């Protein structure tokens, strides 16, 4: 998959795709339905399959002081699109210039002249352009003018409501990763580079791989059974893990992070690119009065996580 951070200066080999366009935070089943229509259009045109998205997320641009809300980083989103067979990923820089561009100019300058798209698929509720004045109907009209087809994907719902990033955030806040997975079509994942922490886990006999949660929506604090995918380095593969997400109150108040004790694993993972899938929520985060009680509880957590993951896997 080729990943682009501009709509200018592309070669002919990077243009001419049938694309799905949107923010795609989480790449949930609703997003995947948009991508499936783009994939069908690409096959019919013998064109590459592309995705047009925005970085940073427009909401972060317009509300820079709002609480962190993203379900996945740009890198995690790119990983998911690569798994889904996307050929060309266009991450358009969402800045003051793009935000001020009228909808009609966006279609002409970005979609036609910059990306040279051959077909476009958007969700029925997609809005774009200065003041969000552009909508699906405008895209259909302008597609006819500029020589590309447009498909409007209907919203995807089930008996419990719309498939949406907002609904996923709600389930994660309530400690229900299995409900989030129903909407996502896959486990919710936290992806990043393993950082060096305080090494308290190693001292306790439970070494952990530490991931920052900066910029991401925070699921309910507590202990989770997780699948731990190593994406780079000599230890590539999928492992079982017990993860603690939160502020580590036994050791004071700390910035929220994710600490994963990888079961049956002893090698160094610092600097490694990993992806952590939240499978089941075991218990809330707790403050322990002494280290012995913490160790006993951690041992019990690992036993429970192993049983859950062996059944889930």
Q: How would you sum up this structure, described in words?
A:
- The protein has 313 residues and is an alpha/beta fold.
- The protein folds into two domains: 154 residues, HUPs (Rossmann fold), CATH 3.40.50; 131 residues, Elongation Factor Tu (Ef-tu), domain 3.
- The chain is 33% helix and 26% strand.
- The strands form three sheets. The chain has a six-stranded parallel β-sheet, sandwiched between helices. Strands 9-14-11-12-13-10 form a six-stranded antiparallel β-sheet.
- The longest helix has 22 residues.
- The mean pLDDT is 94.
Question: Short description, anyone?
Answer:
With 313 residues, the protein is of the alpha/beta class.
CATH class of the largest domain, named Alpha Beta
CATH architecture of the largest domain: 3-Layer(aba) Sandwich
Strand percentage lies at: 25-35%
Mean pLDDT: 94
What is the helix fraction of residues, given as a range?
25-40%
The number of distinct structural domains comes to 2
Q: Give the distance, in angstroms, between the N- and C-terminal Cα atoms.
A: 28 Å
> Whole-number radius of gyration?
21 Å
Q: Would you identify the regions where 5 or more consecutive residues have pLDDT less than 50?
A: none
Can you identify the CATH superfamily of the largest domain?
Answer: HUPs
Major beta sheet, strand line-up: 1-4-3-2-5-6
The helix/strand class is alpha/beta
Q: Helix segment count?
A: 10
Give the CA-based shape.
Answer: elongated
């Amino acid at each position: 998959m080729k990943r682009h951070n501009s709509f200018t200066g592309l070669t002919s080999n990077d243009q001419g795709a049938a694309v799905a366009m949107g923010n795609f935070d989480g790449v949930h089943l609703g997003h995947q339905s948009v991508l499936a229509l783009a994939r069908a259009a690409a096959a019919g045109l013998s064109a590459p399959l592309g995705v047009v998205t925005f970085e940073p997320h427009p909401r972060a641009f317009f509300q820079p002081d709002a609480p962190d809300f993203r379900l996945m980083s740009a890198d995690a989103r790119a990983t998911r699109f690569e798994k889904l067979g996307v050929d060309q990923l266009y991450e358009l820089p969402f800045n003051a210039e793009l935000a001020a561009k009228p909808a009609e100019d966006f279609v002409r300058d970005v979609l036609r002249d910059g990306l040279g798209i051959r077909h476009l698929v958007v969700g029925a509720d997609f809005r774009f352009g200065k003041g969000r004045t552009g909508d699906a109907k405008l895209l259909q009209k302008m597609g006819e003018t500029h020589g590309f087809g447009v498909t409007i994907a209907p919203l995807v719902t089930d008996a419990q409501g719309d498939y949406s990033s907002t609904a996923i955030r709600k389930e994660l806040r309530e400690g229900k990763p299995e409900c989030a997975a129903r909407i996502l079509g896959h486990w919710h994942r936290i992806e990043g580079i393993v950082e060096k922490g305080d090494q308290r886990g190693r001292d306790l006999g439970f070494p952990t791989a530490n991931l920052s949660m900066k910029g991401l929506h925070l699921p309910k604090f507590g202990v989770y059974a997780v699948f731990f995918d190593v994406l780079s380095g000599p230890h590539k593969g999928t492992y079982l893990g017990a993860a603690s997400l939160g502020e580590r109150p036994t050791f004071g108040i700390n910035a929220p992070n994710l600490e994963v004790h990888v079961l049956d694993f002893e090698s160094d993972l610092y600097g490694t690119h990993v992806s952590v899938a939240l499978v089941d929520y075991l218990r809330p985060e707790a403050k322990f009065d002494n280290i012995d009680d913490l160790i006993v509880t951690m041992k019990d957590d690992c036993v429970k996580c192993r049983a859950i993951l062996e059944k889930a896997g």
